[in-house]
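Quick question: what would this complex look like in 3D?
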Amino acid sequence: MSYQKLVSELKRLHYLNSALDLLGWDEQVNLPKKSAAARASQSSALSDLIHRESIHPQVDDWLNALEQDPNALTTEQQCVVQEARRNFDRAVKLPSAFVARRAEHQSRAYHAWVEARKNDDFVSFAPFLKTQLELAREEAGFFGLDGLQAYDYHIDNHDPGMTASVIGTLFDSLKSEIVPLVKQILSSAVKPNLSMFKGFPIAQQEAFLKRVTASLGFDYDRGRLDVAVHPFCSGNGEDTRLTTRYFVDNPLDSLFSSIHETGHGLYEQGLPLEHLGTGLGTAAGMGVHESQSRIWENQVARSRSFWDYWEPFYREAFPEQLSGVTSEQLYLAVNGVSLNPIRVDSDEVTYNLHIILRFELEKCLFSGELDVVDLPAFWNEKAEKIIGLRPTSDVEGVLQDVHWSSGAFGYFPSYCLGNMLAAQLWYSALDALPGIEIDFSNGDFTRLLSWLREKVHCEGKRCDLMNLTKKVTGKELSSDSLIRYLKERYLPLYQQT
Amino acid sequence: MSYQKLVSELKRLHYLNSALDLLGWDEQVNLPKKSAAARASQSSALSDLIHRESIHPQVDDWLNALEQDPNALTTEQQCVVQEARRNFDRAVKLPSAFVARRAEHQSRAYHAWVEARKNDDFVSFAPFLKTQLELAREEAGFFGLDGLQAYDYHIDNHDPGMTASVIGTLFDSLKSEIVPLVKQILSSAVKPNLSMFKGFPIAQQEAFLKRVTASLGFDYDRGRLDVAVHPFCSGNGEDTRLTTRYFVDNPLDSLFSSIHETGHGLYEQGLPLEHLGTGLGTAAGMGVHESQSRIWENQVARSRSFWDYWEPFYREAFPEQLSGVTSEQLYLAVNGVSLNPIRVDSDEVTYNLHIILRFELEKCLFSGELDVVDLPAFWNEKAEKIIGLRPTSDVEGVLQDVHWSSGAFGYFPSYCLGNMLAAQLWYSALDALPGIEIDFSNGDFTRLLSWLREKVHCEGKRCDLMNLTKKVTGKELSSDSLIRYLKERYLPLYQQT
């Protein structure tokens, strides 16, 4: 009886939270210029109210009753109870006033970031960022955590069970392989030519990528694709909202960011909808989420077999722009590697170095070694060391990402953890699904999606990142598959003939 | 002290309600096809929660304390307290479960209406409409009202103080004048020619009407214009969302519906924003709201002086379509009068007959004389009598309007009350602002907007429709000005020379 009540309450909270999500989506997609303060007040009032609802003592009572006799519960029910307990405990320790303050500041900080990025003006954004960092520290403080433990708290918020120490080990091993790999690729005389990507009308780009993303399995009857400054996926499987942005002279940006967000959307649409709001219908964590976006964006959509199928349609959509371009040139351009100061504009090889940079900076911010005002200089110095490129402005450096403006510390590592898992899943899928790449070259992506649905999506939050990796791939999460994949895909391409 | 607490709580409730409004806006503008059930659950959960918050006993305590010594309050504070009391009493009598049920059904019924209208299938919609009517009766029942009193309750929800009996008297007087006026106009040999309105590209329509609506004073930095099945205005002055729809072969529909919604938007943007959430920052009622949309749509935007200014730009936007059309022909087309089964496609003369039809049907539905299943036949019969035209399908009849699908009974009369007030305000404005029509012919609408801001918008909900009319125009609300205006505008146009 407690269990039914609990689930019903979790679903009610889920619908309230998804209403709050919609405010966030609308803020980035539709909000009029001068309506930001009103939206901040709406979000703050609603998030405060939801927070108060989610810490109702009745929920604690139901959980206590259920926890007294865990053997009376099925494994599935145990998963629901454990996740509910984790969320309840996390919420109950946060005072409502703090939650409201954080939500209100989040909205203001987002708009400050948009302005600051537009004007290359870090100084105007710094106080907002400083407050975000203080709020993040304050939040961890409610759990008695500070310094690097506070950072672990935020990492765990995104990827349960993960710590800065585990990530550090994984990233060090990755860095030691990728830095020389990047050098090797860049030293090749083979250079992608991107000059073909000029004058791609937005209407045709949109039509093409809607066709591609639908073919991958994204259900537009339960989702949308809109335009925002920063591509993202929000909502859930009942109403999944993707965003991208269009550049006439950079069609690969919208194409691959859309496929990336589609990967996130496929995960959401693949979670068991009847369990939405409970641990059984919730993503396992941000790292796993990112593995789903990455596998479609990179392993699939940058593959030879994918382009075998889509190239003719791409040429049909942009006949003049691609006239005189050979298949080889097009495929090399899709897999272009170059140093780029902007993370989201980076290729999948150097991208990992961007994440390692942000991880190292976040560690310094939380440990206290680094102050927000010194961030631009520190960023630029570290970027030169790790990525091999010094930003020429803060728009190319510290102002490029939305995450910190919304207080999402400890989120960046998930991207790289996701890259590792994506590659590990990829090799498992290749083993399990013989001839899958022939499917791709026929425009058929259903076998891979079904496999991911069964192995990953259907699991919900039964396992964390590390355990899910072990369960699906039979191996511990490591950088091995990612390194193997990058070498197998990129070294032949950049081999001088 | 209680007063400050009350206002702060009213503002919090306002932001929660405006979040709920946004769910409604998004539902009509953006919602994916299969996401309707999820949205219904979101709206239901949120509206139930807001309802529970709005009947918190503390609000009652504060109100009681303030009501004990009304002389200690300023007139403004008294207005805030009275409006808060009205809303509290209305909310506290509605059980939360009822409110949730109504919200959930509203969403389902809306989608059923969309489908039914698409398929001209009243039978599929009838059970939803029946439930809406039952919910409306049930709601009035919580206040001990039934039959026509229940109808009065819903009318009062839209226009405080108004009753079916008062409306009946006003409408009877209007009907007796308009029916012969329509006959007179239609018997004229002067006929508007609408054949010019073909092939107006949507992009140019949108650009033109955004320019027009901005010139009227709509602040797009605090608002948007999007596309929906049924044009509407939602949100409030901090974020005002208008919708329209585009037809390549009917550009006047989008133009005038946009100007209509802009009138609503100007009212919202003109309410004192610092008082949002209280009676001082709330519209006086739907009739007054409609007067604001109508005065811009009809008295202003169908006037000769308006077109003196905009005609050249309209021709610039649609040069080929309007080549060979004289100014006289264009102006006559803008003021075309003809019998049309669809209310929203009707001219401003016959429009009033549509409202009278719906008012008489609603009366019969609430009195019990008419059952939902008999509605289509009854509609068609009444339409023939009042409007002079029998619909050839339910899409042309009972399925044409969104209102009943959302349970908005007692709303329709506001449109016609608004028409009366708009005309009455118009003559007051002409008296108060000499030469205002010369302003219009120069594209300057600021003096009229300022006058409406001062006389109507700034008032908030200090007065109800009847009292506001008296205060601003010096006369009781009547059909006299509307009849005068229609005769002055239309008889010369349709005079045979």
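Answer marked as accepted. Chain A has two domains: 2-144, 165-493.
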